[in-house]
Design a protein that fits this description.
Elements: H1 2-14, E1 21-27, E2 39-41, E3 55-57, E4 65-68, E5 71-75, E6 86-88, E7 90-93, E8 100-107, E9 114-122, E10 135-141, E11 148-155, E12 163-166, E13 170-171, E14 180-186, E15 190-195, E16 198-204, E17 229-237, H2 244-247, H3 253-256, E18 263-274
Parallel strand pairs: 3-6
Antiparallel strand pairs: 1-18, 2-7, 4-5, 5-18, 7-17, 8-14, 8-18, 9-10, 9-17, 10-11, 11-12, 11-13, 14-15, 15-16
């Protein structure tokens, strides 16, 4: 009985397609600094990001991004830079992949209006401006609700003529305590999202994905999810993800000094593709 339970848990953890995935890229953050052959910083502040975030993303600044004790650490800080009152870090992979299994082991931050995310974006806007060429949130998370995540896929046409497929807000354990595995599986027929092996969302992509608003940018079923996407890691602060009527006024630098945990630690990032 015990052996059967262990096998069941293991099969759930690895997701659908056991035995079909081959590791093609990974970073275990075992060095002393960020491997820039694998990662590139994204820098700057609003209006660059488009949703009223409060942070300035810095480059090569250990206070915001560092590798230590076998982990990548991204830290949001209440401190002025340029016209922003907060700093943080945002990275993307130098590689892109068409379909695959993306696995991130991370311990998430905790605190008012902290907004960590792991997501993928197209390497080129083949089908038009955002999000006609696709936008996938492997997860996003609100720091004052540290047991709840959300997954999202955006496609169908350029904003505002697009489609949003979004998961229910799904509760797990406190994701700021201990490392948890966030998995996104993407093949020709569907996309699946899992936390610690538990699938909580799925989107069928073997169909016409046009929103039926504006001009159809696609010529085949499954588009735009037939092109390479790169992976992004970041911790944002505030913005439109925190409606005032639900989450209250935007966090102030003084309030942010009381954040219980302003860091996202990443143990590893791994990308697999089907054999």
């Amino acid at each position: 009985m015990l052996l059967t339970s262990i096998i069941t848990v293991f099969m759930a953890f690895i997701g659908r397609g056991y035995g079909e995935w081959a590791l093609v890229w990974e970073d275990n953050f075992d060095g002393q600094s960020l491997d820039k052959t694998k990662w590139t910083y994204e820098t700057g502040a609003e209006p660059k990001w488009g949703n009223h975030q409060l942070q300035y993303y810095t480059e090569d600044r250990r206070e915001n991004v560092r590798v230590e004790n076998g982990h990548l650490v991204i830290e949001a800080r209440p401190e002025p830079m340029d016209k922003s009152q907060f700093t943080s870090g945002r990275l993307h992979t130098n590689n892109g992949w068409t379909r695959g299994r993306f696995v991130v082991s991370a311990r998430l931050p905790k605190g008012k209006h902290l907004w960590p995310a792991v997501w993928i974006m197209p390497t080129q806007n083949t089908y038009g401006n955002w999000p006609a060429s696709g936008d996938i949130d492997i997860f996003q998370f609100r720091g004052q609700k540290s047991d709840t995540v959300e997954a999202k896929a955006q496609y169908g046409g350029p904003y505002p003529n697009h489609t949003v497929s979004v998961s229910p807000l799904t509760k797990f354990t406190d994701l700021s305590v201990g490392f948890h595995t966030f998995t996104f599986e993407w093949d020709e027929t569907e996309m699946r999202w899992l936390v610690d092996g538990q699938q909580y969302f799925m989107v069928d992509v073997h169909r016409d994905l046009w929103s039926h608003k504006g001009v159809d940018p696609y010529t085949q079923i499954g588009q735009p999810f037939d092109k390479p996407f790169y992976l992004i890691l970041n911790v944002a602060v505030g913005g439109d993800y925190f409606p005032v009527d639900v989450y209250g006024p935007q966090v102030t630098p003084e309030e942010a000094k009381q954040w219980p945990k302003p860091t996202m630690e990443v143990d590893f990032v791994r990308v697999y593709q089907q054999k």
